[in-house]
Amino acid sequence: MRKLIISMHTSLDGYTAGPNGEMDWIRFDDALFDFVGEFTDRSDTALYGRVTFDMMDAYWPTAGSQPNANRHAKHHSAWYNKVTKVVVSTTLQPDPSKKLQVISADLKANIEKLKKETGGDILVFGSPSIVRQLEEHNLIDEYWLMMNPIILGSGISMYSKDIQQLKLEPGETKRFSCGVTALSFRKR
Where is the Bacterial bifunctional deaminase-reductase C-terminal domain (predicted)? Predict the structure, then answer.
């Protein structure tokens, strides 16, 4: 069975963005980019909400071919262009030319079916509203939280207010020179 893995930058108080979607507080460096590249190398499917997909699709398809593209942009752009993109949306339509599939209803059943297919991991970057729905259905196998050394005080949370207690097993911890600490947790 394929694993569904969340990779999310978060503040110390659990926000993934500021109140207006601000993400200018997120820290990163080459070592963190390389670390996240290990996730993408093991995955062949990206799962997004429509807002995050629109943002990713506006940038990543051509990011690696830009004259100033760095190694990270080239690697992630190549990954983005080859993987299946599954978007939870009631407004988008599937597009085989973009390897785009759409889930418009029954998220739980569709994700369970996707996890039973053969292939690599299913990776979720961003999309806190989708993460909340996945949490409510207990569909997340592994969390990788990129804890940034900041307290935002308010913003967009990746945690559902309606979630029942979910006990997780702690996994690896990795600290980066940019100040981010990556923490992993697995479903019991």
Answer: 2-181
Paired residues of 169 in beta bridges: 186
What is the tens place of the pLDDT at every residue in 10-41? 999 999 999 999 999 999 999 999 999 999 99
**This prediction's pTM:** 0.93
CA dist., res. 11 & res. 27, Å (int): 11
**92-101 CB burial, b ≥16 within 10 A, e <16:** beeeeeebbb
Token pair in block for residue 119:
């292939």
Q: 3.40.430.10, 2.30.30.40, 1.20.1510.10, 3.40.50.1000: which CATH number matches 4-171?
A: 3.40.430.10
CA distance readout (Å), 165 to 76, 115, 160, 185: 34, 23, 11, 14
- Phi and psi angles of residue 158, each rounded to the nearest 5 degrees, phi first: -90, -5
